[in-house]
Amino acid sequence: MRQSIRILVALLLALLLAGASWARPQEVALSELFPNQQHARTIQVINSVLERHHYRKWALNEEFTGEVLNNYLAALDANRSFFLARDVERFERNLRRLTEELRRGDVAVAFDIFRLYRMRVEHRVDQALGLIGQPFDFEQDESYEFDRSKSPWVVRDEDLDDLWRRRIKNDALSLRLAGRDDDAIREQLRKRYEGLARRVRQFTQDDVFEMFANALGQALEPHTSFMSAASSENFDISMRLSLEGIGAVLRGDSDMTVVQRTIPGGPAAESGLIQAGDRIVGVGQGEEGQIEDVVGWRLQDVVDRIRGPKGSVVRLQILPRTLGADGPTREIRLERNQIRLEDQAAKARVLDQLENAPGLRIGVIEISAFYRDFRAESEGVKDFRSSTRDVRGLVEDLTRQGIDGLVIDLRGNGGGSLTEATALTGLFIDQGPVVQVKDSAGRIEIERDPSPGAIYTGPLAILVDRDSASASEIFAGAIQDYRRGLVIGEPTFGKGTVQTLIDLNRYVPGGSTDLGRLRLTMAQFYRVSGGSTQLRGVEPDILLPTAEDIDRHGERALDNALPWTRIDAVDFPGASKTSLRELRERSSERVARDPGFEMLVARNRTLREISEQQRVSLREADRRAETTRREQILEEQKNAFLRRHGMTPVPADEEFPDERLLEKELEVIAQIQLDEAARILADAILLQGTTRTRSAMRD
After folding, report:
1. What keywords does the record list, in alphabetical order (predicted)?
2. CATH no., domain 241-338
């Protein structure tokens, strides 16, 4: 259930925002960690709200409670390195008791489990501190299983002792490979493990309750979560503040803080130095501040260190995704800045050097988010900023430039405003429904094109990838259903559900205490053709070879995600069907000899190999050899491709790389898929024999 917990922490701490620092919490006595009456009242209200309003129908029985327990244990001990099998068996024997107590609003079992967890953490940290000072033999042939999230719980104490010995040895070897000397390694590991025990001792009653309440929500599906009064206050502060920080969405993954994605226009994205999947292992303030080791920290604490005022500098120690768990770290410098709406604004350009279609001009509009300035709109500003308004202007400008076709690039677009997705679709269809929304009561509402008449009726293609989600899927799905244009790329993320934030105090009239808020899934999106965008996403008309291994990404990779379903289609003006076979064959022939796609596919396979790895060698020579092998595979493919484009690659081991050159490298690599999408659209234009859209697409 670890993936479900990731969704929660990514939600609560999504954007790294500037503002007042949270006060450092105090340690809490073990005797204080018992539930109170407010917790009982809150869990009863949560149960009631979920039963009445959640999209998934459920019953509070032992099967459900078993899922809650699994989620709770995953939140506490994701890597199964504190509890023993006998502990878990004892917890599971109490499922009937836990079910009955939950019905009454009693969460005593959750606190019993946490108190045992805290004692186990302190015991293992004492063991770790004792091992840190001992010498390790890095020539011995043994290994360490660093990802135990799916492994059986350890049965014997002595086996868990050995697991921890290997864990400390692995930590020491990783720092050794990063160039630390023995004294520095011992000091850093001492701080790391003392910090782990300290942070666990800082958990309050409300922290324990919030974690358990979220385990309950995650048993329904990944996007349902609870925020206590304190978390709600921090959330509100975040939403009120300007987006000043590094511009990244983070998630917790066991002991690591992982970059889920970077925000277009933010310092992280603009630098080219940090990518999705990279792990943040250290944070330093200013140009000279000491780097703090943040391995094992709670995500909230890491965010507190990273965010800060505009213009200030933060230094991050990064473990790149491409090097796996055993690679060397890299330090990067970022200047915090405000992420403005205009930084995410749609952008346009023209491609007119297509080798398969000399003379054709293909317009490209890149949309990184479905944005709308709701504040300006509410204040009566007539020309408030929105993605639809910006795209309208860009299309009109491209049309004046005499384009023969248009590609809408939605790669990496995680969604945004439903209103914008609907309105933007309306720019390319005459009129009709865009998306259906079915709520938990079974009622269906249809969102329609608000402005009859299309501003562009020419050849159209939509480029998507595995990170195109939510509103992007609504837009791409509607264009595909209307057969208005080609959808090209990778199957999309599969986020087809609608969440709402409910103030729990509404359900306790006259209550004097703040019970917090519940974010729950209350509806699901369906295409006009009847199928949901949930789980499956939008399947492109023409798949690019980077679509391999898609089941390990997006909603498909989440535990307990809502299934794909279908409802009745609605009437909409579709076009007649024609074949895609010729377009697919031409594209397949091109990409088979394209060095760019050769590089991307090789990179994906190496990253898949890294993501599937659960065990690493503890022999230093083997680790260095494996790291070198992966670096060579990734760098040789990339460098060969860049040199074909007349570029001198930035050396991977350069301590302070030129950010402009790195950004240029990323632009050239991103152009690989876009160029092929433009070539596919050009083929469609030439095969049709006209610059009018080919509106019918089928297998």
Report:
1. Hydrolase, Protease, Serine protease, Signal
2. 2.30.42.10
